[in-house]
Amino acid sequence: MKQVKIIKKKDDYTMEYEVGDICKVTGTWYGGVHIEGKTGIPVSIDRDEYVELDEQERPVNDTAKTVHSELKHGSSEPTADESDEEDVPERDIEVGDIVRHFKREWVSEESAEYLYKVLAFAQHTENGGKLVIYEALYPPYKTCARPYSMFMSEVDRVKYPDVKQQYRFEKVETKRWG
């Protein structure tokens, strides 16, 4: 049976699936596929909410992390343009996560300033470099792209010696209700 990986969640109110889940397809419809949700409920998802997994991409015996990493960052084989990205540590930031820029330390916690939602991981069409696509959670809600290595990098301690945050962007732990 075919499997899909959830890459986008249109219905924020359902707890039946999350971005990053790998689900077995139980059927198809003209706009997408049917999957079995976490509680066993059938769920219909649209074409733009998932990617189909090839046989070699399907997780076997807890290899879901590897599959996720290769889907998120492209092929596991580095290209010539990725040499500076090889030293970037693997971080637990995924599509759909809310992240905080280190400059958030300088604004009120009541503000959404310097908070962003990770929309996608992409590949630059000209040089093949990895990119992170993210959207500001404050007006004017600008969508941005930044090189993966820069997004995942540590704060420049020479330029910003008093910043407490270790990385330029760090995941914000959010409380789920349900």
Form type: elongated
Mean pLDDT: 79
Low-confidence stretches: 60-83
Count of distinct strands: 10
Number of helices: 2
| Gyration radius from CA atoms, angstroms | 18 Å
Strand-and-helix sequence, N→C? Answer: EEEEEHEEEEHE
Helix-strand category: mainly beta
Helix-residue proportion: under 10%
Strand adjacency order, main sheet: 4-3-2-1-5
Question: How is this fold's topology laid out?
Answer:
Layout: E1 3-6, E2 22-29, E3 32-36, E4 42-46, E5 50-52, H1 64-73, E6 98-101, E7 115-123, E8 130-136, E9 143-147, H2 148-151, E10 169-171
Antiparallel strand pairs: 1-2, 1-5, 2-3, 3-4, 6-7, 6-10, 7-8, 8-9
Output the keywords.
single chain; 178 residues; mainly beta; five-stranded antiparallel sheet; 10 strands
